[in-house]
Amino acid sequence: xxxxxxxxxxxxxxxxxxxxxxGVEKLDYRSDVVVPRPGFGEVLIRVxxxxxxxxxxNTRIGWYSKTDxxxxxxxxxxxGSTFTFPRIQGADVCGDIVEVGxxxxxxxxxxxxxxxxxxxDPSGVAFSTVTLxxxxxxxxxxxxxxxxxxTHAVTCDWTDVELASIxxxxxxxxxxxxxxxxxxxxxVLITGASGGVGSAAVQLAKRRGAQVTAVVSPxxxxxxNAIGADSCVDRGASVVASLGxxxxxxxxxxxxxxxxxxxxxxxxxxxxxxxxxxIAGPLVGLDMRTLYLNDLTLFGATxxxxxxxSGLVGYIERSEIRPLVHATYPLHDIAVAQADFIGKQFxxxxxxxxxxx
Length: 357
Known about the structure:
Layout: E1 3-4, E2 12-18, E3 27-34, E4 42-51, H1 54-61, E5 87-88, E6 94-100, E7 112-115, E8 118-120, E9 129-131, E10 143-147, E11 151-153, H2 160-163, H3 167-180, E12 187-190, H4 196-207, E13 211-216, H5 221-226, E14 231-234, H6 239-243, E15 248-253, H7 260-265, E16 267-275, H8 288-293, E17 297-300, H9 306-317, E18 325-330, H10 334-343, E19 349-353
Parallel strand pairs: 12-13, 12-15, 13-14, 15-16, 16-17, 18-19
Antiparallel strand pairs: 1-6, 2-3, 2-5, 4-6, 4-10, 4-19, 6-7, 7-11, 8-9
């Protein structure tokens, strides 16, 4: 038996189901999807808003898989496991708990919450993670079931749309900053700074007192300065020519691509580089001499310690960060929203809202 809040929970709901890898035609907006029920240790959330992220696009097109897509149907997600369909995507969830499963306190009913995107793998294998909207259904729906342990109550005056801008982007950025140990004495270079993760990294690095340089197109520079960037570099320019070689302590990178070697050349001896994305391309050239002669340390960052997400909730409640939402879209406009997301003509986050019940 489960405990129910005093709200009407329908038998079916509106949701967008991803039916296969491909274009936006694989996004199936439906009004007859069965509302999930929470099992042991789980809660049912009525979704208020859900943000869009690169992972939604990358998963849809099969970008994470290294398999030759022309010869194999076994396309994998970012965990390396074969992706199964249909799947409700949506790695960002804000809403309220309307039903709890066995072994979850009824006192959690009615909690306003956000959900961790990168969740602890129940297997307990080191650096193994399961992802909301990939290994399990996510927030592009009116309801979603999540583990209670990954669902965090939050008390603030933000809207659901504002809170839904936080989980994936800010936890990714916070995880990178933690992984390389950013501190107040560091000069930090952040690529892709106008995007969700990049703009989050700017705020979170400034929260630590670091000096921040954002790589961004000139027309977006003022927006980055407004959220804390001390200086900006044109994303079309060489960072070495702009800043000088060996001039920064830390590089926070979500871009990769052909200009990647410059990101190591701009690091001081003993510098730290961390990556959690490759929106300009996953294959890069590495001169091993740059790496070892300058005692550089390179980090990849996907797995998140639970302290990353709980820390974000504290930042929200203490007003240490602020949301940066560019636009909202009704859930039925998901194809339009994803096209706008791919166009990158904005700063911050795009957020979806499901129909009201």
